[in-house]
Amino acid sequence: MPSSQPKTRPRRPQSPLQSPPPQTPPKTSPSRDTFILNLGPQHPSTHGVLRFILELDGETIVKCVPDVGFLHTGVEKQSEFRIFHQVFTLINRLDYLSGPQEEMGYSLAVEQLLGVEVPKRAQYLRVLLCELSRIASHLVWLGTGALEVNMSSVFMYCFDTREKILDIFEQLAGARFFPRYWRIGGLAWDVNEDWLQQVKNFLKIFPDRWKEYHDLVTENPIWLKRSKGIAKLTLQDCLDYSLTGPIIRGCGEPYDLRRVFPYSSYQDFEFDIPTQKEGDAYARYLVRMEEMRQSWRIASQALERLPEGQVKTEDTKITPGALPRPWGKNASVMVPDRRITAAPLREGIKIPDGASYHAIESSRGELGFYVVSDGSNKPYRVGLRTPSFMAIQALPKVIEGGLLADAVVAIASFDPVLGDVDR
Q: Global pTM?
């Protein structure tokens, strides 16, 4: 081991320092009866820069080889050169459809290392934002999934509703996709009454919007024909591939980290864990649809029961005091304040030597953060357990043997995000 690295965390002896064998994707078919087709990486049905190398016998897929890495960002390695507070900006870009959930997972892992208790008000606001983010993410999934089977009106309706959630994020933090609102030990600032009213207005209209989508899609004969019995998995398949989230719940297992290992006061809220037993694309659709309703329930309870108090820990060595700021669309333009350039935001906080792992229930399943500290103001290691990475590995199992047209539905039903894969 190089002398510059801490000797307290040696490399595992079973992990030799060598490159993996080169994996050259097939360019020609091994048989004269089949041919090779590239699906992606620039293709709307792959929901990102994802490439599948398909061996086809007519319209039947004989073999499927996923080819990832086109969106590689090096987030894990870059985190080692940033102070703990700066890592938020990097992890926001993983699942770029669920930015608040990424911030939740990372902050909980670091706070676990510090032994910090976040104020109750901050916990409830975190839950509220995560559930709004879950609804927004599922609306993207529903809209784009419906577009795959030429139901373009559903796409328009879903994105119209999602815009209202993004407006809420923009009003809060000045950014629509990546709020960057979390801080280690709490939140950046408190919310005001105008923002709370904006959330109330959205929660008031969402049940009717949800019913519109349900009536349009659930019993639609085209949707039923294209999704029932397609991309079928068993519960054992989910365990073999470490699949979580709506995929495993679509196979009948009510595994949800918000219920199994509650965090951020999720134990205070009443909600159900939707499941289906069929394990196909239609079952995953039903699970996600019901999840949106349950997220609405949780968000409504968090708003109604929002306690008074502070939104960050009182220890200013961990996070600075409340910053003055404007509200509205110019919210990202911060009012100058000396505390912004002072410790801990400038120099970072030194976290005691140790390691912690914390997972949350993201829109796509278990999202885990393994944070290692060597006592400095920067992480020694930030390891990620992302649900989309697991899902991509299982896609060949449900695609092979099926038709090319069904592969598009299978990919959509898994709802992968490539930032989640190529980190």
A: 0.89
